[in-house]
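Translate structure to sequence.
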């Protein structure tokens, strides 16, 4: 009881003005927080074991908090922990340079947390390889540094911030569990580790950042990871999945040229009728029912900006046609499927390739109309905020590597702020930022994490990676063993950064087809199992490309054919879902 009053006395003056200062709430929250943050006896004799590792909660602690706290608790604690650890690092750097102008904040109070000064950017330590470091994980001694002065200060600050946040919510006695405090404690230690390493070893910094988010995510996000399939070729036409339409007209390579050819051949009105017939029949309710029956829990819906806004004056596209998004969302809600809305074709194009709707050899990155893209995302978010089926929004698709990483990250920051400002909450909708190829992951991670504090500043954000094994001469030269080995390598990447594998397939180079169907089928099943195991590590899940594809293409692009041939099965998807839990 003395411990309860001691902690209550220390924390009660920290409550913001106007907060509900219920003595029992403050005492109970303070008691549980103090015991779990310090390993002391807790309320009514409960003894909490201090957390020994950052990767997992302590023995006996479930993966989910029994009664999740309101998002406001997660938001307040995250801000307090991250800003404090950042200022600790700045103070240390200032002391090294005999500049003592940076001051650590006091315990959270009515005046709020002081704004963190932006850490100066530098090249020091950038030589460390983020994704494939020489030593991929911090050692045990590096992980559990709870007795250092910086860690002790961070733990005390985190405990105070948690108690202050809990005192302002209802049912605090049910929320203030050992599990919650253990995760907050792990977040505090990870934040200290990140800011200690970010100027020294980006590989270790990435590991601490990933663990920080791994402990933070269960506090607000309660959807299962996506195990889904793409509905490509429906609301943005591509020659593969939309082959039945492209084959009727000679020459088109993308939706833009197809629509021009259709108007020249059929006239404006009839061309519009043909396109409408495609949109009405390509995806119907029975498709959604079958997606669910196969064992998937989500769909990714690619569409062009014209579906939302209508085409710009110079574009040949047809829209708007939001009724199709309304329809598929209603179906998915009915069958219990999550939906990732994917702005697959941005205004002006995020590249000059077919997947964005218009193939252009003269495309330059400044053709991409970023402000119009933000407006399309704003309209989308305002229309579908609060929709129970909407679990994510992807802000573009496969941006060209000619787009400077600085420009791309600036657009991503604006996109996240736009979507959140339009009413899509972090505890309801994830925002997906395409990196596309793993070769760009290092560069984009550095800018996003160091310049924007992206993963801490913006909750529930994930990078999008597309992991194909068929494009480029290098992939075509590899044998099956190397393809399986690369899947394991991708597994390591996905354990270092919050991500979704937005597109993958079972397509392999032609030379890997066996001499008979049994050899081919065995190779494909091995390839499928390796990818499912690897992509199961992605924090936000994966989506197979595609629901259907051109009959002349490799069957590995068509998930229905993959099921028919026994390369994938409902049992495999069920195993993947159980492993994710």
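Result:
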């Amino acid at each position: 009881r003395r411990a309860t009053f001691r902690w209550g006395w220390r924390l009660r003056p920290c409550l913001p003005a106007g907060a509900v200062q219920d003595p029992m709430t403050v005492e109970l929250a303070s008691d549980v927080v103090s015991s779990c943050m310090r390993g002391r006896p807790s309320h009514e004799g409960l003894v909490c074991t201090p957390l020994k590792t950052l990767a997992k909660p302590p023995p006996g602690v479930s993966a989910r908090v029994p009664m999740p706290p309101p998002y406001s608790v997660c938001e307040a604690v995250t801000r307090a922990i991250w800003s404090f650890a950042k200022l600790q690092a700045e103070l240390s750097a200032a002391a090294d340079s005999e500049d003592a102008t940076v001051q650590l904040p006091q315990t959270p109070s009515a005046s709020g947390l002081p704004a963190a000064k932006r850490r100066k950017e530098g090249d020091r330590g950038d030589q460390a390889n983020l994704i494939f470091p020489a030593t991929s994980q911090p050692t045990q001694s590096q992980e559990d540094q709870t007795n250092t002065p910086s860690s002790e200060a961070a733990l005390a600050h985190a405990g105070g911030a948690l108690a202050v946040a809990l005192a302002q919510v209802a049912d605090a006695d049910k929320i203030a569990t050992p599990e919650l405090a253990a995760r907050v404690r792990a977040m505090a230690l990870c934040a200290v580790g990140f800011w200690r390493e970010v100027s020294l070893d980006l590989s270790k910094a990435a590991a601490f950042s990933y663990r920080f988010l791994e402990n933070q995510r269960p506090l607000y996000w309660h959807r299962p990871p996506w195990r889904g399939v793409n509905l490509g070729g429906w609301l943005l036409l591509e020659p593969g999945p939309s082959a039945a339409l492209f084959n009727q007209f000679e020459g088109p390579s993308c939706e833009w040229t197809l629509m021009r050819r259709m108007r020249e051949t059929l006239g404006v009105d009839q061309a519009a009728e043909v396109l409408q017939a495609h949109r009405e029949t390509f995806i119907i309710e029975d498709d959604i029912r079958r997606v669910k029956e196969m064992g998937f829990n989500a769909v990714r819906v690619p569409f062009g900006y014209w579906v939302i806004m209508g085409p710009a004056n110079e574009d040949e596209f047809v829209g708007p046609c939001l009724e199709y998004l309304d329809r598929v969302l209603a179906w998915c809600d009915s069958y219990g499927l999550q939906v990732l809305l994917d702005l697959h074709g941005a205004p002006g194009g995020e590249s000059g390739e077919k997947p964005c709707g218009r193939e252009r050899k003269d495309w330059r990155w400044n053709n991409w109309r970023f402000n119009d893209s933000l407006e399309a995302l704003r309209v989308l978010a305002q229309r579908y905020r609060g929709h129970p089926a909407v679990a994510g929004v992807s802000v573009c698709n496969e941006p060209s590597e000619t787009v400077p990483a600085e420009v791309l990250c600036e657009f991503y920051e604006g996109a996240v702020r736009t979507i959140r400002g339009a009413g899509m909450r972090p505890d309801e909708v994830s925002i997906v930022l395409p990196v596309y190829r793993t070769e760009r992951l290092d560069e984009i991670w550095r800018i996003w994490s160091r310049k924007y504090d992206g993963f801490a500043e913006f909750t529930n954000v994930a990078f999008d990676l597309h992991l194909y094994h068929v494009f480029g001469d290098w992939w075509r030269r590899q044998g099956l063993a190397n393809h399986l080995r690369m899947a394991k390598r991708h597994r390591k990447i996905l354990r270092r950064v919050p991500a979704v594998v937005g597109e993958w397939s079972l397509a392999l180079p032609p030379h890997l087809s066996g001499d008979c169907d049994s050899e081919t089928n065995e190779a494909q099943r091995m390839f499928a199992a390796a990818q499912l195991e690897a992509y199961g590590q992605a924090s936000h899940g994966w989506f197979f490309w595609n629901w259907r594809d051109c009959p002349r293409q490799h069957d590995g692009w068509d998930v229905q054919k993959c099921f028919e041939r026994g390369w994938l099965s409902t049992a495999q998807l069920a195993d993947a879902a159980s492993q994710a839990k």
